[in-house]
Specification:
Order of helices and strands: EHEEEEHEEEHHH
Strand order of the largest sheet: 1-4-3-2
Number of helices: 5
Distance between the termini: 46 Å
CATH superfamily of the largest domain: 2,3-Dihydroxybiphenyl 1,2-Dioxygenase, domain 1
Radius of gyration: 18 Å
Number of strands: 8
CATH architecture of the largest domain: Roll
Helix content: 25-40%
Mean pLDDT: 97
Largest sheet: 4 strands, mixed
Number of domains: 2
Structural class: alpha/beta
CATH topology of the largest domain: 2,3-Dihydroxybiphenyl 1,2-Dioxygenase, domain 1
Shape: elongated
Strand content: 25-35%
Length: 157
Amino acid sequence: MQKITPYLWFNDQAEEAINFYTAIFPDSRITHIARYGPDGPAPAGSVMTATFELYGQQFHALNGGPHFAFSPAISFFVNCETQEEVDDLWQKLSDGGEIEMCGWLKDKYGVSWQIIPAALGELLQDPDPQKAGSVMKAMLQMTKIDIAALRQAYEQA
């Protein structure tokens, strides 16, 4: 059993959101849905809570009403291996959402994501501060992270 599980509070879009997320990420599935009954605070049959997995990571979702909103203070960091993976996730998750700087985006539900290639961390950890600084400077100019541009900045330092 997973010890810590992210719990996402939606107004009334939990079912739509978990269907969206499980369609995007490989190794994903909805594992349980509990629906409101006729005496609940939401329409009978609508999702109350749901459990789902993305890349095997368990999440819970709740339709809890408009009391709380998502904030970029909490985000999901997706470690990508290739530019194709970055491009695919970026395009799908940002559709209807907001593009932000440095690999961050907000999806159409207001959830913040960091779509980050592993190469960024590797290049930023280079012991040569000039090379790492050049990569940082390049990254700070980007919205979606471009691995080739990061490597070019690294090599030109």
